[in-house]
Sequence to fold (368 residues):
Amino acid sequence: KGGVKMLNQTIESLQLPRLLEFEDGSQVTSPEDWQKRREEILDLLCEEEYGLRPPAPLSISAMTNKLDENAYAGKVLEQHMMLSAEIEGGIFSFPLKVFVPKFIENPMVIVYIAFREDVPDRYLPIEEITDEGFAVATFCYNHVAVDGEDNYVGGLAGLLKKEGERAGNDTGKIMMWAWAASRVVDYLETRDDIDHKNIAVMGHSRLGKTALVAAAYDERFTFSFPNNSGCSGDAITRGKEGERIEQITNRFPFWFCPNYKNYAGREADMPFDQHFLVAAIAPRFVCAGTAVEDIWADPNSQYLSYVAADEVYKFLGKDGFIHPNRLPEVGDTFHEGTLGFHMRSGRHFHSRYDWLKFMEFMKKHRIN
Ligand code: GTR
Fold:
């Protein structure tokens, strides 16, 4: 019973901005209201944190440059291509690799936003994933917009760049990487050998933040799997340990819109917190991976986002976050609800354990 009080008190003491209340103070009272409230939340997160979302492309096309129908001992179809999206400023192209297991029909698919371009990779064990019956579509984030202070010259950043200094709500790179994940879905929808109803987006750390943004802005993602996403991902900012807005915007200003750094040291003034990002994905699935030694990300604050976003899921008639009334402990897995969570031993990493948990969650909640 003490625990019940503790968790409620922790949430209350943070004085989080309300999810089920419009900016003008009126209440959200119906599912239709929630759709409007969700739009407000998405606009707010663009304006204050991630920057404007680039518009959907006018058209997309894919050009295959490698096809192996018998990869991985003959179990997998492996296809490499250039994916091109036609937008206002020109044509933006990036490499995409697709792996489809041949031994099952209609496999669920995971869009993996990768740090490195080599596949397989230590974070992306292709054969073990396809053996579980999942298709994978993956691209390297640096091919979309370089993860560094490049003055936005290349890639998508170059096409979107306006005259002069970056300012206000100009698009940050997390939003660009997330936008690219949506272009992968545009492409996947043209294929008939994968399950369109069960498409997930997944990434680790900065790309875990990206996996949340991708699903928040694109309802075609039925699942989002943010691994160790932490600050400006799934961790509640108010009261957070480890990395805070000041540190993240000093080291990585280009991940966000310039407005975000205004909240460094002023977290209590933010009209949002990261439970807004999770709730914007409702009623769809989010399942997080955290690690007990990842104190820079802060697993307790990560957990609190799901505890706080739960009310929107409940409001929409979903199970939401089914969890005990205490903070997480190492070894915990909470997979019963629409929101899932695990905390493993060890450090910041995208491990085999995380993969197994995510795939387990997706199999359990597959939509027919
Ligand atoms: C860190 C950053 C974290 C996290 C991490 C990563 O340096 O402070 O927010 O994103 O990088 O992406 O590995």
User: Anything to note?
Assistant: The chain has eleven helices and ten strands. The longest helix spans residues 31-50.
